[in-house]
Amino acid sequence: MFHDLVAFVVELVALGVLAWWGWRAADPVVLRVVLAVAVPGTAAVVWGLFAAPKARFRVPVAGVLAVKALVFGAATVALVGLGHGTAAVVFGVVAAVNTVLVTVSRTGGARRDVA
């Protein structure tokens, strides 16, 4: 349960960072607003379709992890672009470790060996 709470917070932070990056990525205010809404909005829609616990489309664990890597990776790169390299490293590590812990707990640690 604790890992699920951390996962939710990390997801919200990722969306916030993407909005922050969108706001800082352009000069005209209209473009800032569009990017600040569209970038995290797109990430949230993709997450909801494929990676959320009650996702619209059920995909294999590898697909869920790919979406999480895309969103968390984008937020990490955005933090670097915003000039916050240390925060990017901390965020990336927390997101990766928590994703592993949540995935293991949800799959029961099951492993399928490929022959």
How do the strands and helices of this protein lay out in sequence?
Layout: H1 2-24, H2 29-50, H3 61-81, H4 85-107
Kindly describe this structure.
- The protein has 115 residues and is mainly alpha-helical.
- It has one domain (2-107).
- The protein has helices spanning 2-24, 29-50, 61-81, 85-107.
- Helix 1 (2-24) packs antiparallel against helix 4 (85-107).
- The protein starts with a helix and ends in an 8-residue tail after the last helix.
- 21% of the residues are buried.
Task: Tell me briefly what this model is.
This protein has 115 residues and is mainly alpha-helical.
Structural class call reads mainly alpha
Overall number of strands = 0
Radius of gyration: 15 Å
The averaged pLDDT comes out at: 92
Shape, per Cα inertia axes: globular
- Tally of distinct domains: 1
Low-confidence stretches: none
List keywords for this structure.
77% helix, globular, 115 residues, mainly alpha
